[in-house]
Amino acid sequence: MPRVIVVGSGIAGLTTALDAASGHDVVLVTKSALGQSNTRYAQGGIAGVMSAEDSVDAHIADTLAAGAGLCDEEAVRVLCTEGPDRIRELITFGVEFDRTDGEFARGREAAHSYPRVLHAGGDATGARIEAALVARIRESSAEILEDTFFVDLLLEDGHVAGALLRLADGAERRISADAVVLATGGAGQLYPYTTNPAVATGDGAAAALRAGALLADLEFYQFHPTALTTADRFLVSEAVRGEGAVLRNSIGERFLAEIHPDAELAPRDVVARGIAAEMAAQGGIPVVLDATMLGESFLAERFPVIDRAVRASGIDWSQEYVPVSPAAHYWMGGVVTDLDGRTTVPGLYAVGEVARTGVHGANRLASNSLLEGAVFGARVARALGTDDQAGWPARPARPFADPMRNPATDAPPFSRGALQQLMWDAAGLLRDGQGLRRAARVLDAWSALPLPTDNIRSLEDRNLLALSRELVLAALFRTASVGAHARSDFPNSHSPLPASAGAEPREVVPAC
Fold first, then answer.
1. What is the pTM for the complete model shown?
2. From CA 278, how far away is CA 233, in angstroms rounded?
3. 302 and 345 share a domain?
4. I need a surface site. Which of 16, 39, 218, 477 has the fewest CB within 10 A?
5. Half-sphere exposure for 189 (CA within 13 Å, toward CB)
6. What was the pLDDT predicted at 511?
7. Is the separation of the CB atoms in 477 and 400 below 8 Å?
8. Is residue 288 predicted with pLDDT exceeding 90?
9. Does residue 501 register a pLDDT over 50?
């Protein structure tokens, strides 16, 4: 049987591996323990049309609206049309979505016109899905390699031929394969404040970049508006706001209604920037989430995971406000794929957050990420082994040219912390040309250093540095504010098309 290596064990990787195992020799590689992924931490739920009152067309319209004109409409139609069947498949795998009087309990989240977000265990949806899929994959014929770091792709004559791995004991292992599927998730560790786990260092996207694959839309990084201000930046799902909680500033006033008619349920980029602006106006003091009107028993039953985390931080959120601020959450860009996960490198597929399918555009609609992993994971599995060389998408030109730049002579010493702070300051919630150009020079200086690669953390740093350069360059060349990409030097520009850099920057407006 043809061999397929699947890298990553979230919903995208597990779905692909499970569906492919019936006709392929599947090797599933996971960086940590099986089940340690962004999927596990997904609280809000999975969006899908599972009631007669809702419609696929409405879900499509909401997704396109959230994407701010940059979604691929065909990809969105695939996502929303095939989503209900994938949700039903999850149910057959043992995922028990919450019900009320026998009907699915459906929540409403930001930018959805209808309550269509299914949840399991209150706010433990991702963990329940992950557990069900892990149980299934352990029963399958797939070989599972845990605690195994994906170092790089192996290429032969421009075609993917396998993967270079590093085992927990430091030994390297080369595995040949007919195809490699990247399902490695995002890169929240680009930033000092993130809801992502420590494993989210963009390893798959960086390896694809080194292999010559096309990446796109890297400037669109979604910052979740409401993460606890504790060290772990624990996510407080916007489903809490969907149930009626509101945001207040340091003097107790609601402020989002002045920014957007949907107030707390406006698109995430709007809410996140609104919070950052309010914090700046209040001298950096975090805003607060007021969920006191929901009551102690409702909060504990509907949001048991968040309830435990908030109370562990010393806050009785049924009586007190919860301090929150934005944190890096989800990358809309990634490795460019077609509708079956094919990349521009033959033999290489990508699925889930690492992929740029076009379904999210400039701003992901809430709870579409789990759906994307399930829908496109199944499509990748079906496409494996059916493609000849002519079936692969042409490798288009890079969307922008890498200009000649002068590395910064005054760059600080390289460290992951320094890189993360640079990205937060220059390529976070609000950017401008001056800050991005300065960041590009520092990143160029760091890239010229002989950085070590003798341990996994150093390899992760290499990946983060490579992706930082690409993100900053993409942000520099999109001289327009659209979706999650906001330029303070182009505050009223919403053109979806990238343009050349060079406009005179304005002073940077501080973010949180």
1. 0.92
2. 19
3. no
4. 477
5. 20
6. 28
7. yes
8. yes
9. no
Dist CA 458 CA 373 (whole Å)? 29
356 carries an active-site annotation: no
CATH assignment at residue 290: 3.90.700.10
Please say if the pLDDT value at position 508 is more than 50. no
Asked which of 300, 326, 352 is the last residue of a domain, the reply is: 326
Regarding whether 284 and 361 lie in a shared domain, the answer is: no
Sheet holding 334-336, edge to edge: 215-216, 334-336, 355-356
Last residue of a domain, which of 391, 408, 426?
A: 391
pLDDT at site 489: 92
Which CATH number do you get for residue 34?
3.50.50.60
Strand order in the sheet with 221-228: 221-228, 322-331, 287-290, 246-248
Tell me if residue 221 falls in helix, strand or coil: strand
Q: Classify the phi-psi angles of 284: left when phi > 0, otherwise alpha if psi is within -120 to 50, otherwise beta.
A: left
Residue 184 lies in a domain: no
Residues 479, 366, single domain; the answer is no
User: What contacts 88, CB < 8 A, 6 or more positions away?
Assistant: none
317 and 339 part of one domain? no
Q: How many domains does the chain have?
A: 3
**Domain boundaries, position 253:** 225-326
Instruction: Give 443's contacts (C-beta < 8 A, 6+ positions apart).
Output: 419, 422, 465, 468, 469, 472
**Helices and strands counted in the chain (H then E):** 13, 20
State CA 114 to chain mean position distance: 23
pLDDT in tens, 404-449: 567 888 899 999 999 999 999 999 999 999 999 999 999 999 999 9
String of b and e for 389-400 (b: at least 16 CB within 10 Å)?
eeebeeeeeeee
- CATH code: domain of residue 459: 1.20.58.100
Angle in degrees, 0-180, between the axes of helices 433-447 and 456-477, rounded to the nearest 10: 150
Beta-bridged to residue 118, according to DSSP, are 46, 106
Q: In terms of DSSP bridges, do strands 322-331 and 221-228 run parallel, antiparallel, or are they unpaired?
A: antiparallel
Rg value, the chain, Cα: 22
Report pLDDT for 500: 29
490 token code pair: 């182009």
Catalytic entry in 106, 128, 136, 268: 268
Most confident of the following: 327-336, 391-400, 405-414 = 327-336
Res 389 pLDDT > 90: no
407 and 444 both lie in a single domain? yes
pLDDT tens-digit map of 128-148: 999 999 999 999 999 999 999
Q: Are residues 15 and 126 in the same domain?
A: yes
